[in-house]
């Protein structure tokens, strides 16, 4: 049942009996209302003395039976609601009927397949693939350089039969789908082509993260493009991951999962064999990385080294320059120029930002107040950490030319020859956009982030930048005071394994993934709830009120979390193996 995540028994009216399959979406009466739900089982008979109410309406075709079973597993694996996963696996709009013969997945039947027997056309086999696809089933990690086009790999995998392809963004999924269609393949782009995929009339079913739940009758293989990308792990609970979900899905189907990535993190390295291309070919697929060592720079230069100013002034049509500064807003941290006190929120004591001159804003509690020092009353505040907006203002003055701004909230991509923004600027551009260089203004912010996966995330950003400047045709410039950091060495040499050197020993010593399974728990009811957990290690709470739960493996952790009922009162959020630790 949607929302409630409970099972209720209802009677199937005679006129609906021939249209009910596992996963069918229905409407049922409940407490005077009609609510949505899915058919998840069909008991032989109701309990003695029980009179069942009939279903109110058949809403339409729902997830196939194999996805109904998978939703139950996912609810256990990520401590979430089965109804949430069933909704993700369902069509975005009601599909009352499928055009043509419907797949044979009625109650009591096996996996769906086109009733007319016509095999959908795969894309034409490529003349050559950048890497030979391993024949083994299960997770197979393919380490491909950023500039390598994944289209031939996907087309080669489609020769095995119907495949499911997951790409980090909807825009990239649409581009890949268009290429496969031009190669003659029957392609379903989710979510719009859900009905086509559900009917088994697509050789390739493709989409962004939610496509991991997409229908694909007769699944022969799955492909994840940029499997390292953090956007493939849900930020909100349940914190499910597309790679882990597809690994279980192909295990049940006896099929391979090809995880394509230029920089496999330790979790992927530990989960499956890593297949690599010839080192010279891999190096050619990484853009040159120019490291600007700022350890000897005059502090009065602020964010801008002489090399970066030169790069911006040299931008021209067809050789655009994009600068990345992962701090939105105008000024992120300020201090009083008179007494030196840090500008903080008078309500929650968090550091405040300055979205506009003369105003202060707390991102934590939302409080706004005038730009006045709370300690001495001075109105002279100096910027300690600039955001993108203020950085753009300074850069326009230094370079003497207009500079566009791009953030996650931007609705239009600036067409200036020079643009600056958060990492959203990397996700808005495509390789055909004429970028000649990408510069990271303050990369130490990424390298020194207080997160377990900071090195992997930093290398992922460099890989994305390398893809956008079309391999060796463009250039990446990195300002840093850590020029010998493993992530920078890995990108400079085109050897991503250099970034993971030493991580295995550190993570094993800390008992962190992939050598342990972890969950984060917080909320008003967290303390009482974690106290009831058994068979796991509980740490915390940290200053933000979060608890960490550890176990030797995922099965032990998930069993322990499932054994303790959720509290009836008080908030509780459980994030199993969140993307950012």
3D structure, described in words:
There is one protein chain. The chain is an alpha/beta fold. It folds into four domains: 14-89, GIY-YIG endonuclease (3-Layer(aba) Sandwich), CATH 3.40.1440.60; 138-283, 3-Layer(aba) Sandwich (Rossmann fold), CATH 3.40.50; 287-496, Rossmann fold, CATH 3.40.50; 516-576. A seven-stranded parallel beta sheet has the order 6-7-5-8-9-4-10, sandwiched between helices. A six-stranded parallel beta sheet has the order 11-20-19-12-18-17, with helices on both faces. Helix 1 (65-77) packs across helix 2. The radius of gyration is 26 Å and the shape is globular. The protein starts with 24 loop residues before the first strand and ends in a 5-residue tail after the last strand. 43% of the residues are buried.
């Amino acid at each position: 049942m949607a929302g409630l995540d409970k099972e209720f028994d209802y009677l199937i009216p005679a006129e609906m009996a021939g249209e009910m399959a596992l996963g069918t979406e229905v409407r049922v009466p409940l407490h005077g209302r009609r609510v949505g739900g899915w058919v998840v089982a069909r008991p032989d008979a109701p309990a003695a003395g029980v009179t069942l109410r009939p279903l109110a309406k058949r809403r339409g075709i729902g997830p196939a039976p194999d996805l109904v079973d998978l939703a139950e597993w996912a609810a256990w694996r990520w401590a979430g609601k089965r109804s949430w996963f069933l909704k993700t696996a369902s069509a975005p709009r009601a599909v009352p009927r499928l055009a043509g013969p419907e797949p044979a997945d009625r109650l009591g039947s096996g996996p769906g397949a086109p009733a007319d027997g016509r095999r959908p056309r795969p894309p034409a086999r490529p003349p050559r693939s950048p890497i030979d696809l391993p024949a083994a089933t299960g997770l197979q990690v393919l380490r491909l350089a950023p500039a390598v086009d994944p289209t031939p790999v996907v087309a080669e995998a489609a020769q095995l039969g119907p495949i499911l392809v997951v790409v980090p963004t909807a825009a990239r999924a649409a581009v890949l789908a268009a290429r496969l269609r031009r190669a003659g393949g029957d392609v379903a782009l989710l979510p719009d082509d859900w009905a086509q995929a559900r009917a088994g009339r697509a050789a390739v079913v493709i989409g962004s993260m939610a496509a991991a739940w997409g229908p694909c009758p007769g699944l022969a293989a799955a492909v994840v493009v940029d499997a390292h990308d953090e956007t493939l792990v849900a930020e909100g609970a349940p914190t499910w991951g597309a790679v882990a979900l597809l690994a279980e899905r192909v295990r049940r189907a006896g099929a391979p999962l090809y995880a394509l990535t230029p920089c496999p993190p330790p979790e992927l390295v530990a989960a499956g064999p890593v297949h690599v291309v010839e080192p010279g070919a891999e190096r050619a697929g990484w853009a040159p990385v120019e490291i600007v060592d700022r350890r000897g720079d005059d502090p009065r230069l602020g964010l801008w080294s002489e090399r970066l100013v030169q790069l911006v002034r040299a931008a021209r049509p067809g050789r655009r320059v994009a600068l990345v500064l992962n701090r939105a807003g105008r000024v992120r941290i300020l201090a009083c120029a008179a007494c030196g006190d840090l500008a903080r929120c008078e309500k929650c004591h968090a550091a405040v930002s300055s979205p506009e001159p003369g105003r202060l804003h707390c991102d934590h509690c939302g409080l706004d107040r005038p730009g006045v020092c709370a300690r001495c009353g001075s109105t002279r505040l100096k910027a300690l950490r600039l955001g993108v907006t203020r950085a753009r203002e300074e850069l326009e003055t230094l370079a003497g030319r207009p500079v566009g701004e791009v953030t996650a909230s931007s609705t239009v991509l600036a067409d200036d020859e020079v643009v600056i923004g958060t990492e959203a600027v990397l996700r808005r551009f495509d390789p055909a956009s004429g970028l000649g260089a990408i510069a990271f203004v303050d990369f130490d912010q990424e390298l020194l982030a207080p997160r377990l996966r900071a090195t992997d995330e930093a290398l992922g950003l460099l890989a994305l930048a390398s893809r956008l400047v079309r391999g060796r045709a463009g250039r990446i410039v990195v300002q840093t005071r850590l020029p010998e950091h493993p992530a920078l060495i890995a990108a400079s040499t085109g050897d991503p394994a250099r970034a993971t050197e030493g991580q295995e020993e550190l993570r094993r010593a800390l008992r962190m993934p992939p050598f342990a399974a972890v969950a984060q728990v917080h909320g008003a009811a967290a303390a009482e709830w974690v106290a009831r957990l058994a068979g796991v290690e509980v740490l915390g709470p940290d200053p933000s009120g979060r608890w960490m739960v550890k176990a030797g493996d995922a099965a032990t952790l998930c069993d322990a979390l499932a054994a303790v009922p959720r509290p009836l009162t008080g908030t509780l959020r459980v994030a199993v193996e969140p993307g950012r630790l």
